[in-house]
Specification:
Elements lengths: L5 H4 L5 H14 L5 E2 L11 H11 L14 H15 L9 E4 L1 H13 L5 E6 L4 H8 L3 E6 L15 H6 E7 L11 H14 L2 E5 L21 H4 E6 H4 L8 E5 L1 H14 L5 H12 L3 H23 L12 E5 L6 H12 L1 E2 L1 E2 L10 E5 L4 H13 L4
Parallel strand pairs: 1-10, 3-4, 3-5, 5-6, 6-7
Antiparallel strand pairs: 2-8, 7-8, 9-12, 11-12
Helix pairs in contact: 3-12, 4-12, 5-6, 5-11, 13-15
Bound molecules: pyridoxal-5'-phosphate.
Length: about 400
């Protein structure tokens, strides 16, 4: 047995691995578990994208190494996508880096920009992979609480002068996992101003950019004046086109940050399978009806869940975007106790808020990733517990 390096030992524990273990045990025991705990899109990738992959996979040119830093056509498609969707101009040659999914970029960025011991600002609750990037860069995390009273946006006035002076990087994520909150233009403007003043590079994780409810399309950070001077945005095809298994995304924005990501990736990989890149071009440039339909589907499910839970007396708030609902647990329970209780008594799996950070305590995250019928069934099971 070879001992692991201290770097590996410093990686955060995978909290949700134990949840998967618990859920699987119930399934193996023959229970009909409604699994709302995960973040895996349940719909297939649209057919036109799959077809493009199939034909591209048959082309021998794609059996070779694809060029370092990816296909020019994909960088151009990413730029075209930003112009079409957000009115943001992107230089495909200098302002796009192709990624093996958003996760790769998020984990790489601290290593690209920080020295060991440097500090960065991370939302709490937040997507746990941010912590992995911090650990691999041997950096220090300063958490920014996301509170319901602030619509789950960080309150920058709560940060100390010392922390603001120290921080070199900041992660943000709207529409937000896990809270379902969306950003406002005013908040992004305040962010750019703060970043300029304190020389902080902002990384906005726009994984749920395509999912906004009540007729509100989520805004891109890069739509904010001056944003490109101080930051980048990470976009992924995983959620927008149900391509989580394909591992494709991109970073857009500040030229020097994009160059740093590309440099690190030159040493880690060559590039993505050419056929996946061609299919990604298809996804980004073809008519976007599939995206609209997906958004409607999540909105209907959200309505079934939220209205259902409210009708049985659970005082829950509807998410404005992402495919998660963030539900306050009944008083007297920790998030983990309540998640265990739902699994044991109602065979419903949800993710305990504490798995997303200290400020996630008191909530559970529910994914809108099953049919309306199963959502109705989940509400009925919770009703039968008679706890509200
Ligand atoms: N960011 C957030 C907030 C996420 O929830 C996810 C996936 O669940 C990702 C990034 C990464 O997505 P991917 O690596 O599939 O692009």
């Amino acid at each position: 047995v070879y001992p692991q390096s201290s770097l590996l030992k410093s990686l955060p524990k995978q909290f949700f691995a134990s949840l998967v273990g618990k859920v699987n045990k119930y399934i193996q025991d023959g229970h009909d578990v409604i699994n709302l705990g995960q973040g895996n899109p349940d719909q297939p990738t649209p057919e036109h994208i799959v077809k493009r992959l199939q034909s591209a996979a048959a082309n021998p040119i794609n059996h070779k190494y694809s060029p370092f830093q990816g296909f020019q056509s994909l960088k151009e498609a990413a730029a075209q996508f930003y112009l079409r969707e957000y009115g943001v101009e992107i230089d495909p040659n200098k302002e796009v880096a192709i990624l093996f999914g958003g996760k790769a970029g998020l984990v790489e960025i601290p290593q690209c920009l920080l020295e060991p011991g440097d500090s960065l600002l991370v939302p709490d609750p937040g997507y746990p992979d941010y912590w992995s990037g911090v650990a691999l860069a041997k950096a220090e995390m300063i958490t920014m609480p996301l509170k319901e009273e602030n619509q789950f946006l960080p309150d920058y006035s709560e940060l100390s002068q010392e922390d603001l002076d120290k921080a070199k990087l900041m992660f943000l994520n709207y529409p937000n996992n896990p809270t379902g909150a969306v950003a406002t233009e005013a908040f992004f403007e305040e962010t750019v101003e703060l970043a300029k003043k304190h020389d902080i590079c902002v990384v906005h994780d726009f994984a749920y950019g395509a999912i906004g409810f009540d007729g509100q399309k989520p805004i891109s950070f890069l739509q904010t004046k001056g944003a490109k001077e101080i930051g980048i945005e990470i976009y992924t095809l995983s959620k927008t086109y149900n391509m989580a298994g394909w591992r494709v995304g991109f970073a857009v924005g500040n030229e020097s940050v994009i160059a740093a990501i590309n440099l690190l990736q030159d040493h880690l990989y060559v590039s993505l399978f050419g056929a996946v890149q061609e299919a990604a071009v298809e996804a980004l440039t073809a008519p976007q009806d599939c995206v609209e339909q997906l958004n409607d589907l999540y909105e209907s499910r959200r309505n079934v869940l939220i209205e259902g839970l409210q009708s049985i007396g659970w005082n829950v708030t509807a998410p404005k975007g992402s495919f998660f609902a963030w539900l306050k647990v009944p008083e007297g329970n920790t998030s983990e106790q309540f998640a265990d209780y739902l699994l044991e008594k109602a065979h419903i799996a949800v993710a305990p808020g504490i798995g997303f950070g200290t400020w996630g305590e008191g909530y559970v995250r529910v994914g809108l990733l099953t049919t309306e019928e199963r959502m109705h069934e989940a509400v009925a099971r919770i009703k039968s517990l008679n706890i509200f």
